[in-house]
Write a structure and sequence with these properties.
Layout (H helix, E strand, L loop, with lengths): L2 H10 L16 H13 L5 H19 L4 E8 L5 E5 L2 H22 L1
Antiparallel strand pairs: 1-2
Length: 112
């Protein structure tokens, strides 16, 4: 989802909740004013919903922009028969950590 799509969902005020983990953050005053302005524009959404959804969109973008670093090992071939090389950059480690933390959160949720 990109920011335009997010704002479209805000217009319809549809919300999805796939479980939550509380976080507390401090924002620069300029950013706090931006959040409050969005809350004023979309009164059907809470400040927490807006911040949560903005963070989700930003994280989606970070994942899309994470650089691929070609390794030397061929892991597959594409539809034209060209080799596809393993990614030895940050992406594989990030995905491993993301999976690990997601499992930890699921286990925590089950035991609560």
């Amino acid at each position: 989802m990109n920011v335009r799509e997010l704002m479209s969902t805000w217009e319809s005020a549809s919300h999805q909740n796939h479980g939550e983990e509380p976080y507390q953050i401090r924002l620069p005053l300029k950013d706090a004013a931006r959040i409050e302005a969005l809350t004023g524009l979309y009164p059907g959404l809470t400040r927490d919903e807006i911040m949560s959804q903005l963070i989700a969109v930003a994280l989606d973008e970070v994942e899309r922009q994470m650089p691929y670093k070609q390794g030397s090992r061929v892991v597959s071939v594409d539809e034209l028969g060209d080799p596809l090389y393993e990614d030895v950059g940050l992406t594989p480690r990030y995905l491993q950590l993301r999976h690990q933390f997601a499992q930890n959160f699921q286990q925590k949720k089950k035991s609560a």
